[in-house]
Amino acid sequence: MYPKFWIKTALYRCIPGGYGYCRYLRRYYDSGYVHERDKHPVRRKHYGSEGWRHSKQGAFFYRDYENYAEYEIHQRQKFDEILKFKGGFDNRTITSYRIKFYRRFKSIAQFLPQHARIVCAGARQGTEVEVLHDLGFKNAYGIDLNPGPENPFVRTGDFMQMDNATSSVDLVYTNCVDHAFNLDAFFKGHARVIKPDGYVLYDIGHSNDQKKGVFEAVAWEYEEDLFLMMLRYFKKIIHLESDREWKWVLLRGKRDQSSSNETLST
């Protein structure tokens, strides 16, 4: 089943120098780049486990961003650094991502028609979008603060401030929940854009210690707190599954969104 997916996965795995858009990105490798010397100034504040607030905001820890502009600058650096360090991801990494996304998406046909409008939020180079296309979901596309150069799958966009019309999207997918500037605003914005009986699919890492990550913007001790927040904005969890590293949750339907929008300025 899905021969296009499997053929392309083999090409991504076996062709030296990469395949498709990932091969194109190899040209952005910079052998003269020295991270400690050349990194963006914002990375001197936010590196490793540094740059976090010392106290919780409710059940969550957040990075100590001065403002939303600093958050945007910091988040854009991840893909820039990947490109400079190694010209994007290597064959083995892309193959593993493709298999992961296949496992997530292969069963959504039971919920969505192939003409469904799907937005992959925080999609970076767009591997998840390409997998959705390979599975027949041609109206899928990605958004990212930094989609990289000439990206055929991902356009510039902000998953904290999505520009889609209200109730216009069938599914929002992201594996970047821990990169949200503000979780309330994040979930509220996704609930706004999905159709009344639309879906959101979230990939969540098992680790409770995201504060050791370089680009994560929010962390939590207990996944239950995260799920309870989701259920403020979405009606029900219809599927929950996990593997060694990730837990993914599919929610359907949105609750009333009549309250005012969260501010992103601080």
Brief synopsis:
With 266 residues, this protein is of the alpha/beta class.
Keywords, please?
seven-stranded mixed sheet, two-stranded antiparallel sheet, alpha/beta, 9 strands, 266 residues
What can you tell me about this protein's structure?
The chain is α/β, with parallel strands linked by helices and 266 residues long. It has one domain: Rossmann fold (3-Layer(aba) Sandwich), CATH 3.40.50. The protein contains nine helices and nine strands. The chain has a seven-stranded mixed beta sheet with strand order 4-3-2-5-6-9-8. Strands 1-7 form a two-stranded antiparallel sheet. The model has no long low-confidence stretch (mean pLDDT 93).
CATH structural fold name: Rossmann fold
Under CATH, the homologous superfamily reads: Vaccinia Virus protein VP39
Low-confidence stretches: none
**What does the main sheet amount to?**
7 strands, mixed
Give me the side-by-side strand order of the main sheet: 4-3-2-5-6-9-8
Q: What Rg do the Cα atoms give? A: 18 Å
One letter per element, helices H and strands E, the order comes to HHHHEHHEHEEEHEEHEE
From the 3D coordinates, which CATH architecture would you assign? 3-Layer(aba) Sandwich
Gross morphology is globular
Q: Which secondary-structure class do the elements indicate?
A: alpha/beta
What is the average of the pLDDT values? 93
Number of domains: 1
